[in-house]
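Memo subject: From amino acid sequence to discrete backbone structure tokens
Action wanted: Derive the backbone structure tokens from the amino acid sequence.
How to read it: Take the token row as a discrete description of the fold.
Attached in line: The record itself begins immediately under this heading.
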Amino acid sequence: MNGLATLRPVHVVGIGLHRYQFASDTPYPTLGLTALRAALADAGLSWADIGAAMIGTGALGMAAGRVMLRHMGATGIEMVQVENASASGSSAFRLACLHVASGQAEIALALGVDKHGTAQRAAEKDGLPRLSPTADSPLVEFALLARHWRDAHGLEVADMARVAVKNHGNAARNPFAQFRKPRSLEQVLASAPVAGDLTALQCCPRGEGAAAAIVASAEAIARLGLDRARAIRVTASTACSEGPVAGDAVGMVEIVRRSGLDTLRAAGIGAEELDIVELHDAFSIEEIVYAEALGLCPPGAAPGRLRDGAWEIGGACAVNPSGGLLGMGHPIGPTGIGQIVEIVRQLRGEAEGRQQPRARYAMAHMIGLGAVAVGHVLRRD
């Protein structure tokens, strides 16, 4: 699972973002190149220094990376486009890390970019009849998960709403977030009902944006005189897909549990050592069940942690300090790399206005359509 343990060290040396935003007439190359140029400037590198580029996108179509990166100049580097649903950016980052760790490149780029496009799911073209008109709707799927958790574990509607309150509050402090307005518990609960117990403010927005992360070997850092103090080590990178589920276990939750344990094991730490976690919270119920699955608390204890402020910035472990998908936004291709950008900023101590104190270990975890999972652990040396 872990492609880094026996290979050479990998460090994030540059990060950049284009703010996540609602659909606009901004061309996607403008979004992506804004993030890329910010990452190059952050690292102190030029485009000619990049040895490979992994592009994560879910809705742009064929050869999106080539169309965008030709504006930087043709340098002959390896270029790969990655689509893995919501985990597209996370998968692109993993490939960039593996390129450096294995010696295929000294410096590699992971860039996620998307606009709210017309992409269709392959499940709509599989030739099989649907069980219902909403059989493949994530909204319905997570509304049902929320109802199951309510019935099985005594979860209250207000517990889910507290996730949205926290994450919208974090996003209000993040200049790159799509939503910049704090919300009260009353506002979240009173927002428009969408499905089951989920209201509009408990569902992530779709939009557009871009995120970039540049990774480098220790040799490249030394050779080019990069700032070693700002380089953040990637200690684990894992990926898996869904497996058999026994009894009454929920497949989406089990893939997070298994992936999270694999990632922590690969990093050689326990969940209790994590200072920051960025995880998939497209719907508020997800943060509750996935935080438990990742081992941040015992089963059934998440609502209490939320009420006690343990997952707030400044708490025991800041969960989604960027604002998460609920507040930061979920443009698909950039989302997983955006998590890495937030974590690097936090571990450097540069997250002004939302800094988690004394942060050393952080996890970024994403799932895609409940069928794939990608996890990373990063460490400040």
Remarks:
- The two ends are 23 Å apart (CA to CA).
- The chain has a mean pLDDT of 94.
